[in-house]
TrEMBL record:
Official protein name in the record: Metallophosphoesterase 1
UniProt xrefs under InterPro entries: Calcineurin-like_PHP, Metallo-depent_PP-like, MPP_MPPE1, PGAP5/Cdc1/Ted1
Ranges of residues in domain Calcineurin-like phosphoesterase: 69-308
CDD domains per record: MPP_MPPE1
Cofactor dependency: Mn(2+)
Top-level taxonomy: Eukaryota, Metazoa, Chordata, Craniata, Vertebrata
Source organism superkingdom: Eukaryota
Function summary: Metallophosphoesterase that catalyzes the removal of a side-chain ethanolamine-phosphate (EtNP) from the second mannose of the GPI-anchor protein intermediate. Participates in the glycan remodeling steps of GPI-anchor maturation to allow an efficient transport of GPI-anchor proteins from the endoplasmic reticulum to the Golgi.
Pfam families named in the record: Metallophos (PF00149)
The UniProt record lists the keyword Signal: no
Length: 398
């Protein structure tokens, strides 16, 4: 009789422990699924495509058909084999992959632009390391046939000007079909891709080739827009392009003294804002910047490189948007730009991704709750007096 009751008690205790263990597994799994998967849907679900100001006068169907929906991001910095720790790689790449794939699924853009520094160690990579980096990039940033991906070169992809070689540039061009001075026209909108690393102005072979292509493209665009300075004779044999003022896409920002005038929660930290920028390192030189403005008269310039957000006006009328880094390794609050663009107008909206500090706070809170639940289950949360009394009574019973 006693053995039967003892067995029953043991079975009950075992069932309670298994039930408690199952609850803990469910709790931990729920926290992981939310922080590593669902949170991206929760955050990106709040982002909306901006409306183009002039679109209200057109019919709804005509407006939606003529507006190009573009996502712009920068500085993904996929870690390489030299500096990249495997755990850091795993974490950062998972975050960027989930953000990118969630954004594609929910927002369904027509085109995505990545403004350079795709890789962190492209300037050093051996052929084998480069192939591995490219494979990982294609897995993370895969996209459907309805979306186009356009990638601009950055200094970490091919090196700064003194590290840049024809081999590194050709390697990048082969993978991403990129050339400096390349024109992409979609829905009557002209985008000019610039290799800003090659805008050194010292006459190097790569620089001469890049500038020559930009000058030729500038001539075509100016003829197509029928600029007053361009005679009909000079433009008679030129291929006509859409008469839309171009948008420049490049890695380096145009020249500015510093980030002192930049504002917003994702601008540079206060201690960095007043640090002077170095030409051809932090920003393009004044000469190169003036050349690009004079050649193309762009209506918008989009750049990356600084890892922080900034909005500036050049020549009092040309806006430039510096896009923050897309990697949590560089920022606590990464983001990307959503652009609704037509041949004559554009509207931009920023979409913030989950703050890493908030995700960390959720994990800490969940960990603390887990400890409390465990202590409560084993009845270790009673006041010290009763806990001591229970220990004494157990000792006496023995």
């Amino acid at each position: 009789m006693l053995s039967c009751s003892s067995t029953t008690v043991k079975n009950l205790l075992l069932k309670r422990r298994l039930c408690f263990l199952l609850k803990l597994v469910c709790f931990v799994s729920s926290v992981l699924i939310f922080c590593e998967f669902l949170i991206y849907y929760v955050v990106i679900f709040q982002c909306r495509w901006p409306e183009v100001k002039g679109g209200a006068h057109a019919g709804e169907k005509e407006t939606s058909a003529s507006v190009l929906k573009a996502i712009i991001l920068a500085d993904t910095h996929l870690l390489g084999e030299i500096k990249g720790h495997w755990l850091d790689k795993l974490r950062r790449e998972w975050q960027m992959e989930r953000s990118f794939q969630t954004a594609l699924w929910f927002l369904q853009p027509d085109i995505v632009f990545i403004l350079g520094d795709v890789f962190d160690e492209g300037k050093w990579s051996s052929p084998q390391a480069w192939a591995d980096d490219v494979r990982r990039f294609r897995k993370m940033f895969k996209y459907p046939v309805s979306t186009e991906l356009v990638v601009v070169v950055g200094n970490h992809d091919i090196g700064f000007h003194y590290e840049m070689t024809t081999y590194k540039l050709k390697r990048f061009e082969k993978v991403f079909n990129f050339t400096s001075g390349k024109l992409i026209t979609r829905k009557g909108i002209n985008f000019v891709l610039v290799n800003s690393v090659a805008m050194e102005g010292d006459g190097c072979a790569v620089c001469r080739t890049a500038e020559a292509k930009l000058v030729a493209l500038s001539h075509k665009l100016n003829c197509s827009q029928q600029k007053p300075n361009f005679s009909n004779k000079r433009c008679s044999d030129v291929e006509k392009l859409p008469a839309s003022e171009p948008i420049l896409l490049q890695h380096y920002p145009l020249y500015r003294k510093s980030d002192a005038e930049c504002s917003g929660e994702d601008s540079a930290p206060p201690e960095e804002k007043n640090i002077p920028f170095k030409e051809n390192y932090d920003v393009l030189s004044q000469e190169a910047s003036q050349k690009l403005i004079w050649w193309f008269h762009p209506r918008l310039v989009l750049s990356g490189h600084t890892h922080s957000a900034c909005e500036v006006l050049h020549a009092g009328k040309i806006p430039e948007i510096s896009v923050p880094s897309f990697s949590w390794r560089n920022r606590n609050n990464p983001s990307f730009i959503m652009g609704s663009i037509t041949p004559t107008d554009f509207s931009l909206q920023k979409c913030f991704l989950p703050y890493e500090s908030r995700v960390f706070t959720i994990y800490c809170a969940a960990g603390a709750l887990l400890v409390i639940l465990t202590l409560a289950h084993f009845q270790l949360l009673t006041p010290p007096f009763y806990f001591a009394q229970r220990l004494i009574s157990k000792h006496k019973a023995v």
